[in-house]
Amino acid sequence: MKRIFITGFALLALFQLKAQNIPSDSTAYKSKKLKLEEVNLVSSYYKQDGNNSAVGGGIGSQHLTDIANTIDVKLVKYGETGIKHTFDIEAGIDHYTSASSDMIDLSANSSASSSDNRFYPSLSYLRENEEKGRTFGIGVSSSTEFDYQSFGGNISFSQKTKNKNGEFTAKFQTFIDQLKLIEPLELRTSGENYGSANRNTFAGTLSYSQIINQRLQVMLVGDIISQNGYLSLPFHRVYFADGPVRQEKMPDTRLKIPLGIRASYFLGDNIIIRAYYRYYTDDWNLKAHTADLEIPVKLTQSFSLSPFYRYYTQSAAKYFKPYGAHTDADNFYTSNYDLSKFDSSFFGMGMKFTPPDGIFGLKHWNTLEIRYGHYDRSNNLTSDIISLNIKYK
Description:
Strand content: over 45%
Helix content: under 10%
Radius of gyration: 24 Å
Shape: globular
Largest sheet: 16 strands, antiparallel, barrel
Number of strands: 20
Order of helices and strands: HEEEHEEEEEEEEEEEEEEEEE
Distance between the termini: 26 Å
Strand order of the largest sheet: 1-2-3-5-6-7-8-9-10-13-14-15-17-18-19-20
């Protein structure tokens, strides 16, 4: 992965050389040619530890590491009638290792997925009529790893109010996925000839944002998400009270409904208070509440800090029981602690640098952002993540 990371920063120098011939933007000029508007290079490192592995039936190490690198390129042009066309191209690659994946085969040397790479490109297009306050968007995406292949598509429409202080947005997304049915070793009957199964997700989102006054902005968001197909994970073990081990078995449909409200309050020129609350419910009887607070503080013209905190709590899904607690009376069963009852906290700090001469003296590379977060869950799962974002504009 070091090669990928270095490649990202090599692109930084390449874009800087090309930028020598690109005139700076001005409010009076809108290019009729497709031009580079923004580039983001993001790298992150994630590490977690716990002792409730779903592969082990609710016991065992949850140690996992993930190194992720993405590049996001935004291109813009204006049509003859002033219509703004935006093309967003993104590509990412992750490399992860998982201790629990080694337990699929009960051998650290035999698991095909103890470490893996995930590649996820996407392409989106926005057509914005600034005069009418109307935006139309479409996008496609994919995600590929050893045992999972996903293809996605989305379509969106936004309309601002006459005074441009409010905006309504509707979005529809779909994901068509295929899973390899990698069973625990002791339950296999066909060696390495894995079967496959499909999983489909359809999501609709409605949101409305409103500028209340010069200091306060709010947004209401509602989603409805429907899933069907193979919703279990085939390598998750479930140990029953009378001793035998089985594969996780879940219903083949799931309906999710999250509802949220977001607010931003500008406390003077240098402080913003951003708050978010979400209520979630689904037909697996899982209910959850999320409360999030972030306070960006501008300390100088080129440096700001953003402390953040998120609290989350959920009830257990009706199909969850811990290791050795399921019985033959259960039609569906899982010992995946992501579906158990728990509370969690996620907190950390973001630092943003916007030097007037650019990062490392490169004028168009004008933003460097570093974020660190620590996650702590009441069922003994902890994690840390650090990310680095460099922006060209």
